[in-house]
Amino acid sequence: MMPTEELNQFRVYNFIKRLMDIILSIILLIIFSPIILIVALIIKIDSEGPIFADTPKRVGKNGERFYPYKFRSMITNAYYLLKTDPKFRKAYEEQQKGGNYKIKDDPRITKIGKFIRKYSLDEVPQLVNVLKGDMSLVGPRPYYPEELEKQQKRYPETKELVREVLSVKPGVTGYWQVSGRSMLNFDKRISMDAEYARRKSIIYDFFIILKTPWAMISGKNAL
After folding, report:
1. Contact 222, 182 (CB under 8 A)
2. C-beta separation of 123 from 191 below 8 A
3. How do residues 10-30 score in pLDDT, each as one tens digit?
4. Which pTM was predicted?
5. What are phi and psi of 172, to 5 degrees?
6. What tens digit of pLDDT does each residue of 96-131 get?
7. Beta-bridge partners for 212
8. Domain residue spans of the chain
9. What b/e sequence results for 78-116 when a residue is b if at least 16 CB atoms lie within 10 Å of its CB, and e otherwise?
10. What whole-number distance in Å separates Cα of residue 89 and Cα of residue 95?
11. d(CA 142, CA 57)
């Protein structure tokens, strides 16, 4: 059982973090509202399909599944077609063999999708997930269930790290996102996510938040 003093600190941290999530996500939604409207309109003009991505649920805190809101940056049914359409076989094989579950020059990405992914604008709707309590502004990346399963088989030494990562809420931004982003393999990413889960603090969260705008504007290593 957690000592009383440590338990109180944990409760204070959670309270302040949740309060910060609510206040900042509301402010950011207001600031980004013109961009949200413009991106939504361009997505509808650029290609057929819904405004939001039709991707499977992700794994959240304590292994609970949730749907992360994201602007659609790919063709409709992209997740399903990757596995079933022969013309995406090469891309699927690249994903399965790769150490970061990412696909370079993914053929499913739309014209506007490439732009909004580069500058992380597709992630902006996840501020709604923050308000709902599914996510936090800062935290580990929300992984696909299939991704966690396959990558833990590839990197068996990461199983304990995954357990640590799932002890906290996933975030819109995080330690590895502002450090290396998509160029990092799973074992490095999950290690950085686990490090965040261990050393989490309000000051550390602010440090990551302050680094996030540059990561978005620069578009460095984004896929």
Report:
1. yes
2. no
3. 889 999 999 999 999 999 999
4. 0.89
5. -70, -35
6. 776 667 788 899 999 999 999 989 999 999 999 999
7. none
8. 12-218
9. beebbeebeebeebbeebeeeebbbbeebebbbebbebb
10. 10
11. 9
